[in-house]
Design a protein that fits this description.
With 373 residues, this protein is of the alpha/beta class. It has helices spanning 54-59, 72-77, 98-105, 108-111, 131-146, 161-168, 193-197, 203-217, 234-243, 252-255, 278-286, 301-308, 328-345, 351-354, 365-372; strands at residues 13-16, 40-42, 63-66, 92-96, 118-123, 150-158, 171-172, 175-176, 180-183, 224-228, 247-250, 264-267, 273-276, 291-296, 319-323, 359-362.
């Protein structure tokens, strides 16, 4: 069966401003969410974030997910403040494999002492369409209610809007079983899933369709949408939010910042790329040297080794060198300014007035070429 409708990528669309905006200046807008943070997650990629540099992302008001490549014991410590509900951390998630999640949160013996604690968990798997995943998440949520602790679950990835509908209908006591779902398969800059398996759904259309389903369902508490993959620039982040994503997850863009944990290289006097330490990278950057980050998808051979210490399957990711282009604080500063500017054009004083409430128009081929210049 062929579904005869066109799917759109970010680059196919632009945002139409409001007819008249009551915002006099972008300084009047608030682009931060209820936690005082940008609606952006740092992707759990071991060439971007780890247990040594996560704090700089958090200090720049971004949400973090500690990747599975970090030692299990170190990840457990990073749930924060001993996991206590009364000093819980709302902005940090810990990535777990499906088996780690099952052992930690689906065993009554292992959770019975979790009372009054808080856990933000990212069940980090590639295929968010498995029934087994949701069976485990349901069991884990049931145990969290039974033993009186807070379990917030992020998972994914999915690439079918109707899967989002099914996920939203999974509830216990009118609360969602899945709190956050990552939407998008094959769109990441380090991913080759789509080119090898042909599994994909154009990101802009996927977000829009999921948001329309959410409006249709009119549930009091609905699973949050995280647009994951395909972000190249500030504009893509803003479009994802305008289309209805509650959050945007970014990997490759953050790999280009000086503070990313990926191995750094510079061009030596022989014109060859040479590895350097993090401290040396900072010094070279300040002197104007061109640096590069070794970036790889987590489904690449290198990513598999980082997680499992061996190559375990056919790779669905790649490794490449990305130029270091900015410091994190400058990227964040620009992101805030551009988002506020877009909000001012659209008459949105607050983020919740902007997300999912905008009109976008399809560009002509010539316009797309012009935007790409």
């Amino acid at each position: 069966m062929i579904k005869k409708e066109i799917g759109y990528a970010y680059n196919d669309l632009t945002i139409v401003p409001s007819i008249i905006s009551n915002v006099k200046s972008r300084s009047e807008t608030n682009c931060m969410d209820a936690n005082g943070r940008l609606p952006i997650f740092v992707a759990p990629m071991s060439s971007v974030i780890n247990h040594k540099n996560y704090e700089i992302f958090e200090k720049n008001n971004l949400y973090t997910v500690i990747p599975r490549s970090v030692n299990y014991e170190d990840r457990m410590k990073l749930f924060g403040n001993n996991g206590t509900l009364f000093n819980d951390i709302h902005y940090r998630f810990i990535a777990l494999s499906l088996n780690e999640f099952k052992d930690c949160f689906c065993s009554e013996e292992n959770v019975k002492n979790n009372a009054n604690k808080h856990f933000n968990v990212c069940v980090d798997i590639a295929n968010g369409h498995m029934q087994y995943l949701y069976d485990l998440c349901k069991k884990a949520k049931e145990l969290s209610f039974k033993y009186n602790y807070k379990l917030v679950i992020m998972t994914g990835n999915i690439a079918n809007p109707e899967t989002y509908r099914e996920i939203c209908m999974m509830t216990i006591n009118y609360e969602p079983i899945i709190d956050y779902i990552r939407v998008g398969i094959g769109g990441g800059s380090g991913c080759i899933t789509s080119s090898n398996t042909s599994i994909h759904y154009p990101m802009a259309s996927l977000i829009d369709s999921c948001n329309n389903i959410r409006k249709e369902l009119q549930l009091k508490n609905c699973t949050k949408i995280i647009a994951d993959g395909g972000v190249r620039n500030y504009s893509d982040v803003i479009k994802a939010l305008a289309l209805g994503a509650d959050y945007v997850m970014i990997g490759g863009v953050f790999a280009k910042c000086l503070e990313s944990c990926g191995a750094k290289m510079f061009t030596n006097y022989k014109g060859e790329k040479e590895m350097c330490t993090a401290d040396a990278a900072y010094e070279l950057y300040e002197k104007g040297a061109q640096l590069y980050t070794r970036f790889y998808g987590m489904a690449s051979a290198e990513g598999q080794i980082a997680i499992n210490h061996k190559k375990t399957k056919t790779a669905e990711g790649i490794t490449k060198m990305l130029p270091v282009e900015y410091k994190l604080h400058k990227w964040v500063e620009n992101m805030q300014d551009y988002l506020r500017s877009a909000m001012s054009y659209c008459g949105a004083f607050r983020l919740d007035e902007f997300i999912g409430k905008q009109t976008l128009i399809v560009n002509s081929p010539g316009e797309i070429a012009a935007v790409n210049k």
